[in-house]
Amino acid sequence: MDQLIQTLLFGLSNGFVIALIALGYTLVYGIIQLINFAHGEIYMIGSFMALTVITTAGVSWTDPVGARLVVIVLALMAAMLFAGSINFLVDRVAYRRLRRAPRLAPLITAIGFSFVLQNIGIWWKGARPLQFPALLPPTNILTDWLHLDTTITFSIPMLFVMVVTVPLLLLLRWFVRNTRLGKAMRATAQDRDAAALMGIDVNRTISLTFLLGGLMAGAAGLINGLYNNQVVFNMGFFAGLMAFTAAVLGGIGNLTGAVLGGIFLGLVGALSDSYLQAQWTPAIVFAVLVLVIVFKPSGLLGEQVADRA
Amino acid sequence: MAPRHPSTRPRRLPLLLLAVVLLLPALVACGEASSPTASSGGGGGTTPTTASGSPGAGGDKGVIRIYSSWPLTGSSQKLGQDMVDSVKLAIEDRNGTVAGYTIEYVPLDDATAAQGTWDAGKEAENANKVVADPDAMVYIGTYNSGAAKISIPILNVAKMAMISPANTYPGLTKAAEGVVEANEPDVYYPNGVRNYCRVCPTDELQGAVAANWAKELGAQKVYVLDDTQLYGHGIAVVFANTAREIGLEVLGGPEGIDYKAPDYRALMTKIKSLDPDLIYFGGLTDTNAGKLVQDMRAVGMTDVMFMGPDGIFNDDFIKAAGPAAEGVYATFGGLPGSELTGKGADWYRKFKEKYGHEPDAYAAYAYEAASVALAAIEKAGVKDREKIREALVNTKDFDGLLGTWSFTETCDTTLTKMSGSQVKDGKWTFVKALEAGV
Hints:
The structure holds two protein chains of two kinds. Chain A is mostly helical. In chain A, 73% of the residues lie in helices and 1% in strands.
């Protein structure tokens, strides 16, 4: 029983990180039907930025809590803004010119950009896996704070993943549903020409979408760094693959679906690692994807057009 | 609810296609292997980066080119560079000339940035490039056993001598029951003659040594993991088999991990519930050994031992694992540079003086491989691939920096001395010499 709960907790933490990245896929797909393959790399760039801020600040886990928290917040903002701007720039430089081109053209461009960004990653931090400083103490909340007699670990880094991710997800949802800009995004997603006729600046709205997706990816970069303590230039590929799967699983274009898809994948992966042989995990994850596409082509939650953006 | 506009209706077929496209890179490794690319002849399209030693010293009979092929990008970058530096040192020690020929050395990289580790297509490209260069006489490499599987047959057809400093998978040269495939090693030698030798002892020795050492360290219950690659899985199987033979309880495995996964906490939770004394990982730093150790510690297995083969016995592993690396054990199919005596000690001193840091464990083997190759060229005395190949496989009583040794019939080294090391204060520290076949 303990093992099951433990496995689910680990799966949940991984799932949240996947969900944050999946949002970027789903936002962009929702508005311009482009699968932005460079998105995984945006996440990698975000985590590199966070690492740079943390190393420049020179803090380690021995510094006082306050100093560490300040640095974490700074790193989070830097990673989000940087990843967001890069995503915005990629759209401005490459995808915008292809807005009216056949769909395959921006897709291939996105694949090309993922290579460009990977190589920027190598140039920036080298090709080796890097240790991301563990700024969060590995304290087990259940035993050390709540004094429960249990073998289950629920550590501060795991709590951190949830505490940062959940508000971001809610904030994004609120933004898309309740603000003017969010309304513009939804309108653009439904019909770009009609939206333009209604006076919506379509290009600006699309840029905003890329910015938002990048912000989420940047946050995921920092969160993953502090949780998994390791970054490497090609981490974006696998993460992007999982996130894309999560987005499709939940119904691509659907925000809630992407989050649920991410959590679902995290849980499936963890359960497979824990109860089956670990070498089957990717096979199981993608088998789930294939099954969902075959039997429910619109994803678990289906596509809610009004929600889409 | 706004009405659904036809133009926004999603198309599902592209999505399905994309899922397939996304999986392609994983398959490329198997698919690209047979694409001969070098057709430029002459210099093979590459300018030699080093003509080592003093060029004025001799070499009036022309140029002999030596190539090496191992990862120079990705997580094995530092050890690859150390091996290149060590080969350069071996050529310099002969003033850059052998038997009247000027020796030129061209290090090739068999890793791609996208993979982060060796790539089958790149290795095939390297081998074909070298075969196409008429001045190329010796191929030093590879680091990864899986890569050697690809280049040995290509070079075998060209009768070119190949010598590896680091391949430890037994099946490349010999049959070993339960460890290698039924058609190995003959499948790699279409020409019928041997052209491939190695200067390091193989995994069926190292895996057994590791199991014995684990018992000696007090382990009774072990869990075995591997990275599903040729090298890692092979050595994990040997470890598990030997462990059972000598009375250790194997709780599970060899279980393969997905080395691209970002996290192994769930896997480690399962292992923790079985309460092992030691976890053995057949794999490399490249295949995420660092993260595995981190997650093992993260789920609370702080006093469980972790042991790996020579693939994690490098500084990159400590960089990747961080503080979690402390206390990790590794075996190595030889002695680390600092423990070498005689010629080996001279080499160790020289390397540190020249490059200003500790050589990676395999640097000594790269030097040894290069020296044996140069000795074979000297013995052959002519620029002829077949004669040099013959001289190489018949090397006997070679007095090198690892000691005095010969090549066996299968072109393996007669050396069996191995060593065990442990991470202490963030550095690999020699623990003891281990003898194979104990």
